[in-house]
Design brief:
heterodimer; A: mainly alpha; 10 helices; 2% strand; globular; B: 251 residues; alpha+beta; Alpha-Beta Plaits; two-stranded antiparallel ribbon; 24% helix; 4Fe4S_Fe_S_CS (chain B); iron (chain B); metal ion binding (chain B); metal-binding (chain B)
């Protein structure tokens, strides 16, 4: 599948942003009300990342001026649900931020903000996980991976902000390291399943001619390219795929885990947590690029030459 | 509304005969022509005369080679357009309600004024039946020539999809596949019509008819063409030319 930059940025940025809002909400729910610099930085980054992602997602539309129409079909469409839920989550987060500003504890609103932030991330993942045509995406681990990465990103950023503005992050770096570890465990399982699952659709099933023998395309419908090949036929070399997976895992997994562990041991905690956050987001951009570039669509069975 | 109708009383669709199709692409051209001037915005091309032309088509003809374990391969021409699925995944993913399946006849259509061009329906379709228009940036798909089949301003024999009307080989058939007595349903029953990618669970309405088995024995030996020509020379012309022939010989 074609990896559109706007969509890669959208899923990474809004995933991390909603993760931060969820972390703020959960902190308030547990009675650790974010205050002062932590409050301001947390909400600015939480709102900033989630909204930047949502705005970016409209850039790949043919008609961005009609984007509001996408809020209408929540009964049937995950993309529509994602839009509606994002607005609900942001509205709840706004009310939550206001209630804290006015001196409230924000326990209930915090919990609601966290819940709806995570449901929004879940619905983002279901836009992809619902597509039976893209076998690699259509598996139960896809929402797990998205949710784990969102939570891990939120925890990492929140731990860094707590370190800088609240004079210490406590157990937060350890929690963040655990979440990063969990997320990559899910991701490795997701890769394994995607690499080994038997192929659902073949040129034989696509043409219905399997009973006659092995099917391959002899002549394409047109000598030029087309939308389907551009959008669904995107391919990357196997060599790059392995290398990119290593880069994603190293930047997004191994570096943040070790950096947060160093921070939790009191070794330049601010610097190591910043390093963890930046490496994690960089690794996630590579992971999300691969998420699209690796995925194969069933329509390509009609264009198989071998 | 992008929820699918529970069922449709009429299921209009195509039956495509892979035995008869000669791969001439006339259906592709007539489809492009009709849909450039018909329903919705023009079916556009980008860079039509340049280095990398890219056009939107609602119907494309692939050519496949089918190779059995033993013996020679068969070449099969394979027209492919929207299958107007019963359980159309392209409809339910649409966030705006632009994609819909008509309850009255089962045709899957796009309301172009409500389409935001997100492309998710093209991702959801396993067959590649939907293409983004490169100029209008809205999703295009086969309408089953909804602007022909009910059109009382054109003569009755033209009230079928453009591709069916055009096919010089008679490889395309149009009708109600929900009516077991219709010509298309009888054709599907007689010839063993099948679904494409049944494993995707889309319930396509359009059906494909398999190529008939090839002649099992080699073609019998034909008489030598030179002998036939020699025989033909022996036969005498009759009638006026026969008289002329004889008269000229006598001179």
């Amino acid at each position: 599948m074609h990896p559109a930059y706007s969509i890669i940025f959208f899923t990474v940025s809004s995933g991390a942003g909603f993760g931060v809002l969820a972390a703020l909400g959960l902190a308030a729910f547990l009675g650790l009300t974010p205050q002062g610099g932590l409050y301001w930085a947390g909400f600015v980054i939480g709102f900033g990342l989630s909204m930047a992602g949502l705005v970016s997602s409209t850039f790949h539309l043919g008609h961005p001026e009609r984007a509001w129409r996408a809020l209408s079909q929540w009964r049937s469409s995950w993309l529509s649900r994602e839009g509606v839920l994002a607005i609900v989550a942001l509205a709840l987060a706004g009310a939550f931020a206001l209630s804290l500003l006015m001196g409230g504890q924000g326990r209930l609103l915090g919990l609601l903000t966290a819940a709806f932030s995570l449901i929004t991330v879940y619905s983002t993942s279901m836009i992809y996980a619902q597509l039976k045509t893209v076998q690699r995406w259509c598996q139960p681990l896809t929402p797990v991976v998205f949710l784990c990465f969102s939570l891990a990103g939120g925890a990492l950023i929140y731990a860094f902000l707590a370190q800088v503005f609240a004079g210490g992050a406590g157990v937060l770096p350890t929690v963040a390291a655990l979440l990063v570890f969990l997320a990559w465990g899910a991701k490795l399982g997701w890769w394994r399943r995607g690499d080994t699952a038997p192929v659902l659709s073949t040129p034989e099933s696509a043409t219905g001619l399997g009973a006659m023998g092995k099917v391959r395309m002899l002549e394409a419908p047109h000598t030029g390219g087309n939308y389907l090949l551009k959008e669904m036929g995107y391919k990357i070399g196997r060599k790059h795929q392995a290398r990119l997976r290593q880069i994603a895992l190293m930047l997004g997994g191994i570096v943040p885990v070790f950096a947060t562990l160093f921070a939790s041991w009191g070794l330049w905690p601010g610097l190591f947590l910043l390093m963890a956050v930046l490496a994690f987001l960089g690794g996630l951009l590579a992971e999300r690029w691969l998420f699209f570039a690796e995925a194969e669509h069933s329509v390509m069975t009609y264009y198989t030459r071998t | 509304m992008t929820s699918l109708p529970a069922s449709t009383a009429v299921k209009l669709g195509l039956v495509i005969d892979l035995d008869t199709c000669v791969g001439c692409h006339a259906c592709v051209i007539s489809c492009k022509e009709w849909n450039t001037g018909g329903y919705g915005s023009a079916l556009a091309d980008a860079d039509a005369y340049g280095d990398a032309p890219l056009g939107a088509f609602l119907n494309r003809v692939h050519t496949f080679e089918v190779k059995p374990e033993e013996g020679p391969a068969t070449v099969v021409h394979f027209p492919k357009s929207c299958l107007h699925c019963d359980d159309a995944p392209c409809v339910t993913v649409c966030p705006t309600g632009a994609s819909y399946k008509r309850a009255e006849d089962g045709i899957v259509l796009v309301n172009e004024d409500a389409c935001i061009g997100c492309g998710l329906c093209a991702w959801a379709c396993p067959y590649g039946a939907r293409e983004m228009d490169p100029v209008e940036k809205v999703m295009k798909k086969c309408t089953l020539c909804v602007d022909r089949i009910y059109n009382e301003n054109i003569v009755e024999e033209d009230r079928i999809p453009s591709c069916v009307r055009t096919c010089p080989a008679g490889a395309r058939h149009f009708g109600d596949l929900n009516d077991p007595a219709s010509a298309v349903s009888e054709l599907v029953a007689a010839r063993g019509g099948f679904d494409l990618m049944p494993e995707q669970g889309t319930g396509p309405v359009n059906k494909y008819l398999p190529p008939r088995p090839r002649t099992p024995e080699p073609v019998p030996d034909l008489p030598d063409l030179a002998d036939l020509a020699a025989d033909a020379r022996e036969t005498r012309a009759e009638g006026f030319f026969g008289w002329l022939d004889r008269a000229l010989e006598r001179l």
